[in-house]
Amino acid sequence: MSLTVRNVEAADTTRVAELMHKYIVGFYKNPWPGDDKIDELIQTLLEKEEGIQFVAEKDGELVGFATIYFSHSTMKAQKITVMNDFFVLEPYRDTQVESLLFLTCQKYTQDMGFSHMTWITSTENKRAQQFFDQVGAVQGNWLSYSIV
């Protein structure tokens, strides 16, 4: 059995979109933004200028993905990464797949000279919060808001 975490490649577009559907619609119960918008997002991330996507591949099957966007921290006056998405299929949670995918994001952040990686998760996602606590993450002091 082989496990690889790697950058998304152009040949992965359809399979990554399927994973994103499971994440957006299946896990978070949000409406699907549409195939065209998802394909456009994946293409943007393939350019690696605004962000990057990683996939976890186990025995030839894509079983997880993470999306990191590039931003800046005014407080630190440095570049940061924002891990906007972190999703692993249910059978692979609490396994090496989850750990390796997260560590790849963390290592990329460090190797590329970003000051730190930040992310948010749903207040109801207790399982993810437990994982983030286990990897040594520290919960921030900021509340998250959004507006449409």
UniProtKB/TrEMBL annotation:
Transmembrane segments: none annotated. It comes from Paenibacillus taihuensis. Residues 3-148 form the N-acetyltransferase domain. This is Ribosomal protein S18 acetylase RimI-like enzyme. CDD domains: NAT_SF. GO terms for cellular component: ribosome. Keywords: Acyltransferase, Ribonucleoprotein, Ribosomal protein, Transferase. Gene3D superfamilies: 3.40.630.30. The keyword Acyltransferase applies. Pfam families: Acetyltransf_1. One of its GO terms (molecular function) is N-acetyltransferase activity. SUPFAM superfamilies: Acyl-CoA N-acyltransferases (Nat).
